[in-house]
Design goal:
146 residues; alpha+beta; 6-stranded mixed beta sheet; 3-stranded antiparallel beta sheet; 34% strand
């Protein structure tokens, strides 16, 4: 079963971000984001995840290409990042940009805001219908790339 998430950047008084379908639990996602920031820098990661691609199947730095079950008309391998959706047109891109003011987050359980110095991790509270902070994870990569 998928654990859906959003990876976002600060924007004004809130955030904007993109949907990621698989492996969004904090135990997996935080480490993947730390590895990406260690390699590409926070602005590079924001560019690739949020600005250059409209939606993701998975973020996994160990991904080596599309698998046999990936539909090549719907997915693309993004080297160093994972698998992005390609079946969203440029005219639909804004519909797939999630914002802090939205009410529907495509069933996402977790939100990761890529701050300048740390990742802010939040969990969606269905009862309160709002994001609740869980932790702040600094970009400490010591040992991650060894």
């Amino acid at each position: 079963m998928s654990t859906r998430s959003i990876v976002a950047e600060p924007y004004g008084d809130g955030w904007n971000g993109r949907y990621i379908h698989w492996d969004g639990n904090p135990q997996t996602r935080v480490t993947q984001l730390q590895l990406l920031v260690a390699k590409y820098g926070v602005e590079g990661v924001r560019d690739t995840i949020i600005r250059e691609h409209f939606s993701w199947s998975s973020l996994n730095t160990a991904t080596k290409g599309l698998s046999d079950h990936d539909d090549k008309s719907r997915f693309a391998f993004v080297d160093g990042y994972g698998i992005a959706h390609t079946d969203i047109s440029l005219s639909e891109a804004d519909d797939w940009l999630f914002r802090h003011t939205d009410k529907d987050f495509a069933g996402s359980d977790y939100l990761y805001i890529l701050g300048d110095k740390a990742i802010i991790v939040c969990e969606y509270d269905n009862e309160l219908q709002t994001w609740q902070p869980l932790s702040v994870e600094p970009y400490e990569y010591a040992g991650l790339l060894q």
